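Quick start: what a row looks like.
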Amino acid sequence: MRSDKEIAAEALRRAAVNRKKKVSKKRLLYTISAAAASLAVIAGLSFFLPSVDGVSNVSPNAASATILSGSNIGGYVLIGVAGFVLGAAVTLFYIRTAKKD
């Protein structure tokens, strides 16, 4: 037979385990949401960036690669900055959620 202290300790241990499971599920949801948002941003930029470069006389099927074929360097800079910002944001989000143990 267990004493009252042992029963209370076991209940507290189970509550702690349940809290950790909930936090783990939330963290997984945040991570998946961040990855989905990142992919949405990348997909959105892939449709938006060809028009930023000023190439408008190209068919829509070929517009995705025109930013790399022109001599304008603005497209390269924009892609580099967007990639850096997106990578830094995802990295900081991951570090922040990993520290919340």
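That is the whole record. The first helix runs from residue 4 to 52. The two ends are 34 Å apart (CA to CA).
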